[in-house]
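Board notes (copied after class):
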Amino acid sequence: MQPRHFLGVEKSLTGKAWVESLDTKTQPIATAISQRHQLPELLGRVLAARGVDIDSAAQFLTPSLRDMMPDPKALTDMEKAAERLTKAIVDKQKVAIFGDYDVDGATSSALLFRFLQHFGIPAEIYIPDRIFEGYGPNGPAIDGLIDDGAELIVTVDCGSTSFEALEHAARRECDVVILDHHQLGEQLPHAVALVNPNRQDDLSGQGHLAAVGVVFLTLVATLAVLKAANHPHAKSCDLLAWLDLVALGTVCDVVPLKGLNRAYITKGLVAIRHGRNAGLNALMKTARLTGPANAYHLGFLVGPRINAGGRIGDASLGAKLLTMDDPIAAETIAVQLDDLNKQRQAIETDMLAEAIAEAERDIGDGPGPSVLITGQDGWHPGIVGLLAARLKERFQRPAFAISYNPNGIGTGSARSVPGVDVGAAVRGAVDAGILTKGGGHAMAAGLTIERAQLGRFREYLEEHLSRAVDAARGQNQLRIDGAITANGATIEFMDLVERAGPYGAGHSQPVFALPAHFIGPAKIVGSGHVRASVSSGQGTRINAIAFRAADNPIGQTMLKNREGTFHLAGTFSLDHWGGRPSVQFRILDLAKPSIRR
């Protein structure tokens, strides 16, 4: 059965049909959730629309580690990893931590570093340079770590497909433990243990974890072994104090917020508010974060600053900052990362204009290709992932952005839309000999390609993804959870909405419609955002903003609007600017009310 059009909107300003988030099957579930658990009707609607059933609603609203934590030994190779880490601690061996250059890699590295530090183990974090070394372990880096005395190398958020580098480590007689979550095939690299819930022989059901979540489970298992051995420092090890790192990495890696991930983030936000991590405190201060930390702050204010180091600066800065206990030294690095983030934004703006122009040429006046591929000589390789994300959002289809070096070798990133597995397509293109290397997830991937192979790659993607893309784009809908007026958007209303949080990937923030509201004078703020106030015409006005909308139909309509009302669709948040919380509306779409005769 087709969902009913919300407020009668069959085609909005962005071409979307607005539909009710509940259908005839889920509406009774929403009512039952509200009645059984004595919850407001709105909360029942939000939960049912996101697949929460009657029996699991209470646990969903109050996720706990005790309820959600699996037995770590359910993950393949976990016992081997815990035993090898225990041996390193007991024998006081030097451990090298080889991480990735994104937030998940930085938090994974910092978490393991702090654990080993508690037991007095000398540890070194190594984050490869994105441009000169690329992703994952490499031979020269392995040699350097071993030459510096490493007796155990632990790769975090990488390593699952690093066959040559880890074979080289084996020839150097250095043990390697891999803690990762990236997809991989049947072939496994040489390692003492490979803990990855996405390996094909793992039946734990924890494939939705970020790498930092896998690292935390590994530390739980390791601590259990140390306690059983009566290690003198085991009882004083408080793993829960480091859940701030787990929450940060989980949010920023955009993994589904279900099961254990919900508990990680809920409890991790509590740890963040305790303010024990000097580096995280400095980052939040530099980001001018106001009010209690939430998942949005981590994903859109803190995370990009850590990523800026890996994109255009020193890739090790993020992990280094998160291991610091000195507030003054931490603030110095936080300011450095903030400056790098500003530089990154400027570079991205110039590159994005070129990428949009190329994409529009490819699309022309017709439907265009199913998958967009843009690429230029000299694009900064650290920014291409952001370009792909922006193109995907703008053109509503999977997008690749590739930076070519003078030798014609391209380094690229891809971002996809729900229902289109771009990671599998990239791995298939590697197997077909089209790509030099590549891999990733359903929603994101990285690759290396020779320019001469670009035509074959376009054909491959069109052949293997066009049907899935057509199906995904055919569902050009915006699901609406309910309608409310500006008068009803109160602090109490926000408290109610937040009870079903945290929101993110796999548990989307509720979208509400403001029917027939007036949009006040609009202006461009920040990096192309459009701000205005909206009201129903009966008193209360609330602040509203459309992000990166200055040159799209939503922003242009807001800027040119002089009279009349619009249906608005978007999400609510609390703005703590100035110390007083106020409700803010993020505009996702607009529609003109239909005229009924």
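Comment from the instructor: The chain has 20 helices and 19 strands. The longest strand covers residues 565-575.
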